[in-house]
Every structure is written in structure tokens, then in C-alpha cells.
């Protein structure tokens, strides 16, 4: 292992546009690498990104990887496969009589879900997305399990074999199997899977009782189909990645991020394509959580503004929330997945005027990175938010991407004048301020919505600002929301990669069973014990035991006559006692009332437990972020100029100091209004705000 | 100069005409269905109906008397008049 | 008005409605509100004019406006900060007694500045049949608690006497209490958010925004109407209840920038509870008007101003008290929806520019199957079959209708999973799928409806009962456009099992193969017991254009996917299929001869 003195932790996140790398070594500054992503195989981009980091360390990729003890990875490869429809030809075996379940999407649900309200209103123009399986590749199998898991119709093996042969004859590469109520009794699905293997072992199979054992046949079937669709892609990707790393002298384990914010060993992740969906944003939230833990902040609103979208998620009391009705593209699925909501308001979002009303709008259409904003000079002719940031003085045309690219402010101004300012009858300046306000208002409304949805008040939270554009906007929308503190982290633009190295190995288990509250205590060990046994064994095989294992139990509960379920942490030690059960019930009611409002509980109908969950965590050693020693408050050495910038509170351009981030030192204070340029992003401190560089080189903005 | 009356009819030279063959069917601004070729089919006879269907309710198909292009349709009990769509301007 | 501030405030007003809707769904937690989205929240100006209507059941936007206005009239001088009013009388403003409006005044610094209103279809209202649809009611007096306006909360204090009286008259009072609490919470959220908005921007700016929003909508709709030729378009809807045939006639006239909906000639009011009041008809015609004609215009009073309605008193679309109306929402109101959808669709089709915004009629025939009994665990099983919310899409001029794709008056409806129903009710589905040959034929076919069959399963009482009401099974109602056929009709069949004992399991895959005598039903209260089955099929959407113009490959695909039968392929679409593939020549010949048949007998008349 080289000179044997240093071992590295390398994390690479493959996003839609960029592949980011973070290299960590104890006692060393964190190295950030970035390269463009290379769809559809993405492998090149991974190497480029690692090389970008290695270059900064003056070593080769092989030298770096030879000294790397752990490689952690997240990738958009599965998301990409769905979005570009690049997956396998899938066949579906399902209970006879219910062949249309996947295609019919519970009625209009698949037609309107995922659309903005504006698009929903124009109903004539709405449609479902074309399904991932054609009707002629869906076979109804004579079999039936009932609501209590009793098999009332045995699997007709002849019919099943016939259906499988027919599908194979049609050239399917993967087969999904989803029978009614299979999560209570896997028998028929398992047998059908065996029959597929008998007939053609090369066919990738996925069964619903394994991949998504929860009630609701539409979502469960959809999940199984997506998993089958992307199954081989995920498997091949992960295997190729492992080979690629090995060929470049890496000899350690490879871990893959999942949408619920935990890692799995590559060998296991390879069998759960669906687990990788949205793992990038999940890593981002984990990164925010880790940053929060570092700074002793338990209540965080994590915001991420990239080129196309603005994403938010909420961490409350250190807990992350799972999404209730996740979707990928226009498809529903059901997996534990971190809740992240988004709107089309990113740096590349196009600014436009609404026909007929002359009202200015931002997004959701985006100019992307090609042709990109007008000021990029790559042929973009529609003004974007980035152009607006230019016009209001936040961006410096000469220092974009570390000076590697000059931005054309004049072109931006011309186009903005013609397309936005003139039609609104305003000066370029007034129009630019106005658009900035429209965009920040939209973002403020989105954040309010996600916090109100959970009964929370943004004023009780700290905000984290990630992503390329967030630093310029967060001090404005943060102020509007009433947060007291905004952290723009040092690793803001590679947050997802940073999140990867903060994550742990996590296995999620669950058992569906409906039990009234209270139930005899004897009901619980048969539910909990098998999960515990399985989890401990799996973790032990992965090298985790003793105090490196944390078992977090939770139970989904609801009031029997109402639909809302709340996942409630089980705080008492197992085995469950009468007091423990009472405590669970009490905690459920508290959480329910907090989220759904006072008086929202219909207690008289009784409480039911519907699902029992285990989140089994294998604790990884995380890099210690070594704090730097503090210098003084005087930041004047970092001032590199002055120019006019838009100060929201004064509705005017005000001459302000411009700072170079690389010249700032721990403890330095920046009094707003001011702009801080970092090699990758720009941070704006507004009037009556103070920016402080903390001991980890984050910029912490304190709001008045 | 012809203007559109519907997906299947145009108005040209003060006449309502078939959009496909352009032949005149009726004067502009009048009820044209009586001048069209009419086919009547009982709903109960159409694939997809059940025995609960009213025995008399029919679908009326109005076609161009010159070329047979389908112009319009309506659901009706035999005793009910044609539904009229009449443009009075443009 | 400054376009930036306007843009922001408008966006914020939408969020006010959205947050109130979230609150409504959260606090209620009921299936009908959360799955069926049978709800509405909207905002009104101080004088009751509709300021902003959101997505939800669109029938209610205008009737809630009337509710506000009638509260203002009735309580003049007695409207205070912190008040909350309840109204559910169909002859005053509501659609039927089950749809309770809660209406709150919003005050800022002591001044009345706005109203918020919401509704849900409550769990029960004390009608003679459970669940609110009362097919057996002979007058409105048997349709449960009904108020033309009462003050439920007085300056922040709940009137316990009214609360207790209302709950005293309904089944499942705890569930109704929850419905009411959710609406109270919803209005409180709307009020808080509105006040924050006004606080931030100031009252004058807020009021200017409201005026501008309404004026803008009016201007834009009038401008749009001027684009269409002047003229009149007619439609007609039939439906039946227990053998009686009803007609809703509509003549929609456009003159300049005004639109008149004239229902003269519609049947007199019925003795059955399918009637609708004047307010219901108004609501019924705006339900398609908003999404079809105002898909890019804010839904508010401005859109209502250019519209006039003529509905003769004593007719089925403007019934007089005490006509029964509890089934209105799946009865005459929907016929008004459908009729308006047809005439608006024809007007849209009269202009090239709006060709791709027109549509045939969607899911015209709601059915209310309300089940009640004991569930597998001995508790109460009560609720509506949500498949009625699954609907079917009408065809467009550029694409087929969406199979089981929803309905126009409720943009965000959906049905429950089979597993959800089987967990809550002692029943088992034999099948649930798209209904073959239900989409109206056309160049673009209507979306299919669906079919399902249920049998009792593990029912402690041997089964359960259900209340069935709707517009019957005799007449197609999802009209086609430009020559397209209507979607196929609903049907409800009670299969009387020949086998009296329980214990054998049926796995029949079609109605015809379920053993037993088939009895078509349509209206009343029925049992589902023993080995009997209930079969329900619902209508497809209307088609657009000539079925003989449909791409034969699409027809072949439809046949392969079992949504069109071989017979229909041949008879309606003129497509010949040989085995698994198209007989191209046979198709050409058949289509030529079918076309000839159209004008052979009376060509050149």
C-alpha cells in the first residue's frame, strides 16, 4: 500500500450532469474532484472525477486507489435507465383477473401524479406515461391468496410454465412476479420464480414479496416491474465498476448508496436495482444530517439548488422522513426512500412571460448546461436565473468555474431586455430584481409547504444551502422564512459525495401485520425476532458486531377508521412489555397530532399497528472533520474588490465588498451586504446579516 | 375563402360543405343534418352493449351525401329531433 | 399593478388553498377525502365573489360562492371575526345534504376582507339510507339534516348546542365529527395564511391583486370567446331510474363574448332523488367549463361573468322544494356536466386553434355503490366503492381517451387498491380490469371503462348490503365528438348463486362464467350474501372522429390487448384480422363498403 502511511476514503457520486469525488484522509484537507458525467455507462466519468482529485494531490489514480481503504459510491444509473427508457424487455406474471393493475394505475392516479397543478388543470393534455411492460407481456396466472395469507387457489404450475415459455418466446429478458397478498404468503411467488429458473436461468427475476412486501398491489407491482426492468443494468454496472476499480489498484470493499440514505455492499446492491433510485439526493440529505451533527444542529432544512431543480428536505430532531408516495419519472413505487421535494427552479431555469397576462414566471423548463444560460455563450437565447444573477451583480463574469470560463454579461443583458424587461415595461434592473424576487418567493413557498405538511415552523430550523446556485439565494429566502442561521458548507457543491462518506451500512426489514393496540405481548416476538436474527447475521457477515451494530425498531400505526399511518420509533427495549406498548401508543398519538393537527385523531375507533420495521445499522468509521485553529474576525485581507450588487431589503444596487473564499480564515467575519466567490460557488450575504467562516471552513450566515 | 365550422364541415360561398370532398350540403347558418345521409344503429346492437340497454335508443350517424365522410353523430330516442349546431357568424 | 408583486401574491394565494387542502386531508384521514379527493377548498372576496378555486370536485366552486353570498345576506350585521358558518341545504346553495359547506369570514384588523369555504362528503347525514345517497327518499325531508345557514362557531367559540344537535341526527357521529373538525381546521389554516399574506403586502395591494385576478380571468375568457364563431350548439342526455326516462336538454349559444346555457325542454323534476337544484346545475356546468375552456385561466368569478344560465323552475335541473336530491351528484348534475362538456367540446372544435383542446365526454355515468355491514373482524364495514372515481377518459383529437383515466369534474381522482378493499370489507374480487368494447369508437377511441366482480369472503353475517343509485344502465351518456361513438353504458348485475352453501370458491373470469341467475339491477338496497356475486361494469369515454379512419394497426393492438373484440374491430372499425395479423386488403374492402353503405340508401337527398 504505497508508503503505507496514508489511507484514503474515496466517495464518488454520479449525478445527471456532474460526477463528484471527495477524497478524505485523516488530518488532511478534504480534496474535491469534479468531472462531467458520461451516460449511459458512466464509468469514464467516474475515473475522470477520481483523476480530478488525484491531480490536486499530485498523484496518479492508481496511486490514490492503492492507498484507499474504502470506496463509497452513489449513481444515477438506475434513474437514468428509467428516464431514458433504456431497461430490459420485461414480462409480468400476476394473479389472473388483475392483469390490468399495472396499466390502469388505480385510475387517473398515473395520469395526474407528478404534474404541477397548472398542468393538472389542463386535463385534455394529460396522459399516463407509456408503461414499462406491454399488455401482451402480462400473463394472468391461476392462483389466489386472500387477505389473511391463506392460499385459496393453488398455483397452477402447468399454466405458469406455459405463460413463462410464451414470454420467453417473445424475447423477454426479465420477468417480474407480483401476486395479490403475496407479502403475507410468499409461497406462490417463490414457486413461480423457481419455475422461471427451471425454464430459463438467464432470465432476471424479481418477486414482489421480496422487493416490496407491503400492501397495495398497484404500487407493489410497479416496484417489482421497475426492479426487473433495471435489474441487469444495476448488476452489470456495479460489477463493471468493481472491475474498473480493481484494475486501477483498488483492493478494498465497494459500497453503494440506497434511496433510504444507507449503504449496501456492492454484492447486495447489485440485486436491488430499485434501491438505487434517488440515491444522490438521499446522500445529500445524509450529508446535511452529518453536517448538522458536526455543528450540533438537530433541526435542519436542507436545500439544494442545482441547474434544473430546487430540492428541499427536512431533518427534525436528527430524524429523516421517508417519502409516502414516491415516484420515479411518472411511475409509482414503494421503497423506503428519503423524502425530498423539488420544484423546477434552478440556475438554468428559464425566465418567461405568461401569454395573455404578462406575468413573469420562472421555470420549470430549464436551459440545462447546453445551450445553457445566455451568458455561457453556448447558444442559449432564453434568459435564465443564472443570467439574472449576473445582471444583479452576484456573479462575476470573469471568475466562473475558477476562471476557466468567461461569461458574457452584455449578451445576457440584451436578451433579458428584449424578452423580459421590455414586455413588462420595466428597466433591465427593475425587471432583474423582480425576477429574483419571484424566484425566491417560489422557493419560500415550497419550503413552507414541506414544513407545514409536517406541522413544523421554519423559524425553529437551521438551513443548509447546497448546490451550485444556492449560496446566492439562500440568504434571501432564509430571511423570508425567518430562519436564524444558514450554513453554506465548504463541500456545498459536492454535497452528495460528502454524504456518501457520512453514511453507514443500513439494512431495512419489515413485516406487515395488522394488530390492534393493545395486543397480547406474545404476538410480538414472532415478528421481531426473525428480523433481528437475520439482521445480525447479515451484519456479522459484513464485519459488524457488538457496539458497531445499532438496531432501530419502529412501528407503523394508524387510527382504524383513518388512512394516515405514522411510522413511530419504538423507544423501549425488546422484548416488548406492557409499558413499552403503552409508550408506543402514546408516542404515536403525539406524533400524529403534531403532524396532522389538533383534534385530528379519531381515537374511539381504536388504534392499529400495521407494519413492523427494523433499520439495522452497521456503523462505519467516519472521517473526523478536523477543525482548523481560529484566526481573528478581520476579513479585510480577503477583500479583492468592490462592485454593485442587488440588496433585497433596499430594493437597489449597492456597492459592496467582494471576497475571495480561498483567502478567508477561520473566524473571519463578513458583514453584509457582500459577495464571497469560492472556486465553485458564490455566496451572497444580505443587508444586516453576518457571514462567519467556522472552524470547518463553512460559511455560517447569521440573520438579524 | 373557406372557414371552419367543425372538424368535418367548412363554410364556403355561403354553404356548409363537407371538409373532405368540399361538396355543398346546406346553406350556411342553417340546420344541415336533414340534408345529410343518415344511418341509424340501435345501441343494443353495437358490440359492447348489454341487455339492459334501452331497446330503442339509437346512434345516428350523419354522413356526406356525396362522399360518405362521417360528419357527426348523436345519441337519440327515435322520437327526438336532431340536435342542431348552427353558426350565425364568420 | 406591479407584475412582480402580482406574480408573487398570486402564487401565494394558490399555496393558501393548497395548504388548506392538505390540512383538510390530514385532519380528516377518511378514505373518501384522501383517496376519492371528494373535497373542495376555495377563497372568496368579502362580498362572496369567487377569488380562487382549486382542484377538487369542481361542482362546488360556484355553489360555495352562493353559500357565502347567502350567509352574508342571512347574517347581515352579525358576521364577526372568529365566526364559522355551516350550510348544506340544497335549495339554498349546496348540491345535496351530504356535502356540507363550512364557510369562514376572514378579518384583518377588524375589517372583513375575504372568505374561505370548504366541503367534504360527510360520513353520514341522517338520511333514510346510510352514506348520504338515499334512493328510497321521496322528498328532501327524508334526506337528513339540512340547514340554509347556521353559525357553528361564534367569535371563536364552538356552539355546542348546534354541534350536539347535528351529531344527534347522524349515523357514525364520531366520524361526522371528524369530518367537521377537519373542515374547521382547514378554514383556520386558510384564514391564518391569508392574514399573513395581507400583513406582508398590505391590505390595499392585496385588494388590488384580488380585483386584478378576477378582472384578468374575465378579460381572458371574453377574449377567448370572441375567437369562436357566434352560434349555438345542442346536446341531450338521457338517463333512467326504475324505468322512467329523463332528458336533460341543453342549447349553448355564443354571442360575442357571452355564453348562454339554456336547459329549456329538460324533463320535469322526478319523484326520485336524482334531481338537482339551480345551484347544482350551475356547479355542474362549470365543472367542465373550467378545465376545458379555462385551462390556462385562473378559476374565479371572472370566468363566471360572461356566462348566463336558463334553467326552468320545476325541471329536473332546477327542482322545487321539497323534491328529493340526495342522488343529484351522480344524477342530474352529472347529466349537466356531460351536456356542457359536449357543447363546449363542439365549440372548441369549431376553431383550428383549439382543436387540440377539445375532447369527447369522459366518464359520464358515476355509480354510487355504498356498502355496509360487519367486516371480517366483526367491526363496522361502511364505505363507497371507489371504482366510480376511476372513470374513463374521453378521446382527444390527437390521442385516445385514457383507459380508466378519471373524470372531468374532478381532476385528481383515483380508486383504492383491491387489497385495501379486501382488508376493510368482507369481500373478495374475482377480477378487476378494463372493460372490452367500452371505449366509444372513433378515429381516436374513448378510454375504456372497467368491470369488476365481488363475492362475500369471511363475512360474519354471511355477507353485507349495499345501496345502489345512479343514472341507470339504459342510455349511453359519454357522447362522442365529430362522429365518434359514445362510450358503452354501465351495468350492475346481481348473480344469484345456485349453490346455497358457503365454502366453495369461485374463480370465474367473466360475468357469463359466474354460475347462477343474472339479475340486472340499478336502484335500491340489495344484499350480497352467501355465494352470490355483484358484478359492476362502468362506462367508457366517447370517441372522436370516424372509426373507419382509425389506424388499423392501432385496432390490431387494441384487439391483442383485449380492449376491443374481433367483432367490434370488424363492425365498428371495419378492420379485418386474420389470426394475429391484419388482413390489409380485407380491411380496405370492408371499409370501402361500410362507407358506401352510409350514403347508399339516401345519398344525394
Task: Provide structural commentary.
The complex is a heterotrimer of chains A (704), B (90) and C (605). With 704 residues, chain A is an alpha+beta fold. Helices cover 32% and strands 26% of the residues of chain A. In chain A, strands 13, 14, 15, 18, 21, 22, 29, 32 and 33 form a 9-stranded mixed beta sheet that branches. In chain A, strands 3-2-1-4-11-12 form a 6-stranded mixed beta sheet, sandwiched between helices. In chain A, helix 12 (279-294) packs across helix 17. The relative contact order of chain A is 0.09. By secondary structure, chain B is an all-beta fold. Chain B has one domain (2-76). Chain B has strands spanning 2-4, 9-12, 15-18, 24-27, 37-42, 58-63, 70-76, 86-87. Chain B has a 4-stranded antiparallel beta sheet, with no helix packed on it. In chain B, strands 5-6-7 form a 3-stranded antiparallel beta sheet, with no helix packed on it. In chain B, a hairpin with a 2-residue loop joins strand 2 and strand 3 (15-18). Chain B starts with a strand and ends with a strand. Chain C folds into 3 domains: 3-219, no CATH class; 359-545, no CATH class; 548-600, no CATH class. Chain C has helices at residues 3-28, 31-34, 60-74, 160-168, 173-201, 203-227, 278-293, 301-304, 332-348, 418-424, 552-560, 566-571, 584-600, and strands spanning 39-45, 50-53, 84-87, 99-108, 111-121, 150-154, 157-158, 231-241, 244-255, 258-262, 307-310, 367-374, 380-384, 427-434, 450-456, 463-470, 491-496, 517-521, 524-529, 533-537, 577-578, 581-582. In chain C, helix 1 (3-28) runs antiparallel to helix 5. The radius of gyration of chain C is 25 Å and the shape is globular. Chains A and C meet through helix 4, helix 5, helix 6, helix 10 and helix 15 of A and helix 1, helix 5, helix 6, helix 7 and helix 10 of C.
Amino acid at each position: 500500500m504505497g508508503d503505507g502511511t496514508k489511507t484514503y476514503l474515496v466517495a464518488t457520486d454520479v449525478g445527471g450532469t456532474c460526477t463528484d469525488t471527495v477524497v478524505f484522509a485523516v488530518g488532511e484537507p478534504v480534496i474535491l474532484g469534479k468531472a462531467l458525467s458520461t451516460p449511459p455507462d458512466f464509468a469514464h466519468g467516474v475515473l475522470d472525477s477520481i483523476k480530478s482529485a488525484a491531480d490536486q494531490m499530485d498523484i496518479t489514480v492508481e496511486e490514490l486507489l492503492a492507498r484507499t481503504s474504502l470506496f463509497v459510491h452513489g449513481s444515477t444509473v438506475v434513474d437514468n435507465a428509467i428516464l431514458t427508457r433504456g431497461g430490459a424487455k420485461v414480462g409480468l406474471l400476476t394473479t389472473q383477473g388483475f392483469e390490468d393493475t399495472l396499466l390502469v394505475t388505480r385510475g387517473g392516479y398515473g395520469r395526474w401524479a407528478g404534474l404541477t397543478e397548472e398542468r393538472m388543470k389542463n386535463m385534455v393534455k394529460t396522459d399516463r406515461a407509456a408503461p414499462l411492460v406491454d399488455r401482451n407481456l402480462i400473463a394472468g396466472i391461476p392462483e389466489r391468496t386472500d387477505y389473511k395469507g391463506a392460499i385459496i387457489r393453488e398455483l397452477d404450475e402447468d399454466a405458469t410454465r406455459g405463460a413463462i415459455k410464451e414470454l420467453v418466446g417473445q424475447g423477454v429478458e426479465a420477468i417480474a412476479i407480483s401476486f395479490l397478498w403475496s407479502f403475507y404468503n410468499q409461497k406462490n411467488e417463490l414457486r413461480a420464480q423457481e419455475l422461471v429458473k427451471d425454464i430459463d436461468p438467464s432470465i432476471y427475476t424479481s418477486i414482489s414479496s421480496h422487493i416490496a412486501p407491503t400492501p397495495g398491489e398497484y404500487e407493489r407491482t410497479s416496484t417489482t416491474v421497475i426492479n426487473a426492468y433495471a435489474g441487469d443494468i444495476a448488476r452489470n454496472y456495479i460489477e463493471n465498476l468493481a472491475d474498473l476499480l480493481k484494475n486501477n489498484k483498488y483492493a478494498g470493499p465497494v459500497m453503494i448508496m440506497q434511496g433510504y440514505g444507507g449503504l449496501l455492499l456492492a454484492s447486495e446492491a447489485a440485486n436491488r436495482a430499485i434501491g438505487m433510485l434517488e440515491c444522490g439526493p438521499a446522500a445529500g440529505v445524509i450529508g446535511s444530517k452529518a453536517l448538522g451533527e458536526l455543528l450540533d444542529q438537530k433541526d435542519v432544512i436542507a436545500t439544494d439548488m442545482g441547474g434544473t431543480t430546487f430540492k428541499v428536505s427536512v431533518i427534525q430532531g436528527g430524524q429523516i422522513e421517508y417519502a409516502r408516495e414516491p415516484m420515479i419519472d411518472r411511475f409509482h413505487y414503494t421503497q423506503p426512500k428519503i423524502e425530498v421535494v423539488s420544484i423546477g427552479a434552478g440556475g438554468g431555469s428559464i425566465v418567461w412571460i405568461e401569454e395573455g397576462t404578462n406575468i413573469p414566471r420562472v421555470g420549470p423548463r430549464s436551459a440545462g448546461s447546453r445551450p445553457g444560460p445566455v451568458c455561457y455563450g453556448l447558444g442559449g437565447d432564453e434568459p435564465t436565473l443564472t443570467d439574472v444573477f449576473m445582471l444583479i451583480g452576484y456573479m462575476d463574469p470573469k471568475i466562473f468555474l475558477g476562471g476557466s470560463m468567461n461569461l458574457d454579461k452584455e449578451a445576457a443583458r440584451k436578451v433579458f431586455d428584449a424578452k423580459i424587461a421590455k414586455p413588462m415595461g420595466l428597466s433591465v434592473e427593475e425587471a432583474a430584481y423582480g425576477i429574483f424576487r419571484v424566484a425566491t418567493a417560489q422557493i419560500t413557498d415550497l419550503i413552507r409547504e414541506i414544513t407545514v405538511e409536517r406541522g413544523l415552523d421554519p423559524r425553529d430550523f437551521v438551513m443548509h444551502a447546497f448546490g451550485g446556485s444556492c449560496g446566492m439565494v439562500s440568504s434571501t429566502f432564509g430571511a423570508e422564512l425567518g430562519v436564524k442561521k444558514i450554513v453554506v458548507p465548504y463541500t456545498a457543491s459536492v454535497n452528495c459525495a460528502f454524504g456518501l462518506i457520512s453514511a453507514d451500512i443500513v439494512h431495512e426489514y419489515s413485516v406487515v401485520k395488522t394488530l390492534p393496540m393493545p395486543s397480547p405481548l406474545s404476538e410480538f416476538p414472532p415478528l421481531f425476532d426473525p428480523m433481528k436474527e437475520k439482521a445480525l447475521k447479515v451484519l456479522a457477515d459484513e464485519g459488524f458486531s457488538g457496539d458497531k451494530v445499532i438496531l432501530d425498531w419502529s412501528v407503523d400505526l394508524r387510527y382504524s377508521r383513518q388512512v394516515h399511518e405514522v411510522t413511530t420509533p419504538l423507544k423501549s427495549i425488546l422484548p416488548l412489555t406492557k409499558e413499552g406498548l403503552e409508550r408506543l401508543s402514546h408516542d404515536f398519538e403525539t406524533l400524529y397530532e403534531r403532524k396532522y393537527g389538533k383534534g385530528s385523531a379519531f381515537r374511539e375507533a381504536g388504534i392499529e399497528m400495521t407494519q413492523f420495521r427494523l433499520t439495522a445499522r452497521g456503523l462505519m468509521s467516519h472521517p473526523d472533520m478536523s477543525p482548523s485553529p481560529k484566526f481573528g474576525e478581520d476579513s479585510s485581507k480577503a477583500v479583492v474588490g468592490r462592485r454593485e450588487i442587488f440588496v433585497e431589503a433596499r430594493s437597489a444596487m449597492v456597492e459592496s465588498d467582494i471576497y475571495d473564499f480561498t483567502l478567508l480564515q477561520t473566524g473571519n467575519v463578513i458583514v453584509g451586504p457582500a459577495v464571497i466567490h469560492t472556486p465553485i460557488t458564490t455566496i451572497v450575504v444580505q443587508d444586516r446579516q453576518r457571514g462567519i467562516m467556522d472552524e470547518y471552513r463553512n460559511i455560517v450566515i447569521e440573520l438579524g | 375563402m373557406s372557414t371552419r365550422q367543425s372538424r368535418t364541415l367548412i363554410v364556403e360561398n355561403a354553404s356548409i360543405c363537407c371538409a373532405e370532398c368540399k361538396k355543398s350540403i346546406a346553406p350556411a347558418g342553417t340546420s344541415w343534418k336533414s340534408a345529410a345521409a343518415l344511418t341509424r344503429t340501435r345501441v343494443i346492437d353495437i358490440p359492447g352493449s348489454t341487455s339492459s340497454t334501452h331497446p330503442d335508443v339509437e346512434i345516428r350517424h350523419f354522413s356526406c351525401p356525396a362522399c360518405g365522410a362521417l360528419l357527426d353523430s348523436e345519441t337519440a330516442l327515435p322520437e327526438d329531433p336532431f340536435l342542431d349546431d348552427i353558426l350565425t357568424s364568420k | 399593478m406591479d407584475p412582480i408583486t402580482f406574480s408573487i401574491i398570486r402564487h401565494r394565494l394558490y399555496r393558501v388553498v393548497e395548504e388548506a387542502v392538505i390540512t383538510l386531508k390530514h385532519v380528516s384521514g377518511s378514505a373518501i377525502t384522501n383517496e376519492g379527493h371528494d373535497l373542495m377548498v376555495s377563497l372568496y372576496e368579502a362580498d362572496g365573489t369567487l377569488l380562487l378555486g382549486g382542484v377538487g370536485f369542481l361542482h362546488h366552486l360556484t355553489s360555495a360562492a352562493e353559500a357565502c353570498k347567502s350567509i352574508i345576506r342571512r347574517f347581515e350585521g352579525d358576521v364577526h371575526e372568529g365566526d364559522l358558518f355551516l350550510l348544506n341545504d340544497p335549495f339554498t346553495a349546496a348540491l345535496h345534504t351530504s356535502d356540507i359547506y363550512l364557510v369562514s369570514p376572514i378579518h384583518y384588523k377588524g375589517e372583513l376582507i375575504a372568505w374561505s369555504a370548504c366541503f367534504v362528503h360527510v360520513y353520514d347525514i341522517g338520511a333514510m339510507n346510510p352514506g348520504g345517497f338515499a334512493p328510497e327518499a321521496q322528498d328532501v325531508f327524508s334526506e337528513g339534516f339540512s340547514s340554509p345557514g347556521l353559525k357553528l362557531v361564534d367569535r371563536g367559540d364552538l356552539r355546542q348546542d348546534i354541534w350536539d344537535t347535528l351529531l344527534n341526527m347522524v349515523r357514525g357521529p364520531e366520524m361526522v365529527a371528524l369530518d367537521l373538525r377537519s373542515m374547521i381546521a382547514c378554514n383556520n389554516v386558510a384564514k391564518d395564511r391569508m392574514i399573513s399574506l395581507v400583513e406582508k403586502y398590505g391590505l390595499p395591494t392585496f385588494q388590488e391583486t384580488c380585483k386584478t385576478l378576477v378582472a384578468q380571468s374575465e378579460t381572458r375568457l371574453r377574449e377567448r370567446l370572441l375567437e369562436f364563431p357566434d352560434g349555438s350548439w345542442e346536446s341531450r342526455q338521457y338517463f333512467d331510474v326504475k324505468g322512467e326516462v329523463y332528458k336533460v336538454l341543453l342549447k349553448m349559444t355564443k354571442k360575442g363574448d357571452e355564453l348562454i346555457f339554456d336547459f329549456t325542454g329538460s324533463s320535469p323534476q322526478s319523484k326520485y332523488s336524482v334531481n338537482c337544484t339551480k345551484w347544482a346545475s350551475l356547479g355542474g356546468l362549470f365543472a367542465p367549463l373550467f378545465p376545458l375552456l379555462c385551462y390556462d385561466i385562473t378559476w374565479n368569478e371572472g370566468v363566471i361573468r360572461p356566462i348566463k344560465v336558463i334553467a326552468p323552475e320545476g325541471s329536473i335541473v332546477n327542482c322545487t322544494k321539497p323534491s328529493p336530491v340526495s342522488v343529484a351528484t351522480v344524477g342530474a348534475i352529472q347529466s349537466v356536466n356531460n351536456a356542457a362538456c359536449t357543447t363546449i367540446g363542439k365549440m372548441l372544435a369549431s376553431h383550428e386553434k383549439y382543436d387540440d383542446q377539445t375532447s369527447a365526454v369522459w366518464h359520464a355515468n358515476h355509480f354510487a355503490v355504498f356498502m355496509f355491514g360487519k367486516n371480517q373482524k366483526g367491526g363496522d364495514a361502511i364505505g363507497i366503492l371507489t371504482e366510480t372515481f376511476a372513470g374513463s377518459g374521453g378521446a382527444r383529437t390527437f390521442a385516445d381517451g385514457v383507459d380508466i383515466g378519471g373524470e372531468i369534474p374532478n381532476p385528481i381522482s383515483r380508486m383504492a387498491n383491491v387489497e385495501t378493499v379486501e382488508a376493510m370489507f368482507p369481500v373478495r374480487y374475482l377480477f378487476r380490469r378494463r372493460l372490452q368494447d367500452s371505449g366509444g369508437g372513433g378515429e381516436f377511441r374513448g378510454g375504456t371503462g372497467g368491470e369488476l366482480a365481488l363475492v362475500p369472503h369471511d363475512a360474519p353475517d354471511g355477507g353485507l348490503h349495499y345501496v345502489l343509485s345512479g343514472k341507470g344502465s339504459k342510455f349511453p351518456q359519454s357522447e362522442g365528438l365529430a362522429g365518434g361513438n359514445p362510450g358503452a353504458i354501465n351495468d350492475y348485475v346481481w348473480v344469484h348463486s345456485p349453490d346455497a352453501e358457503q365454502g366453495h370458491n369461485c374463480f370465474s373470469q367473466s360475468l357469463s362464467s359466474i354460475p347462477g341467475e343474472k339479475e340486472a339491477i340499478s336502484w335500491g338496497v340489495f344484499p350480497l350474501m352467501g355465494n352470490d356475486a355483484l358484478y359492476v361494469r362502468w362506462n367508457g369515454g366517447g370517441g372522436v372522429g370516424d372509426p373507419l379512419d382509425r389506424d388499423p394497426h392501432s385496432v390490431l393492438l387494441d384487439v391483442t390487448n383485449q380492449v376491443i373484440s374481433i367483432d367490434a374491430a370488424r363492425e365498428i372499425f371495419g378492420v379485418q384480422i386474420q389470426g394475429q395479423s391484419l388482413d390489409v386488403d380485407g380491411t380496405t374492402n370492408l371499409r370501402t363498403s361500410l362507407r358506401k353503405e352510409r350514403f347508399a340508401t339516401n345519398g344525394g337527398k
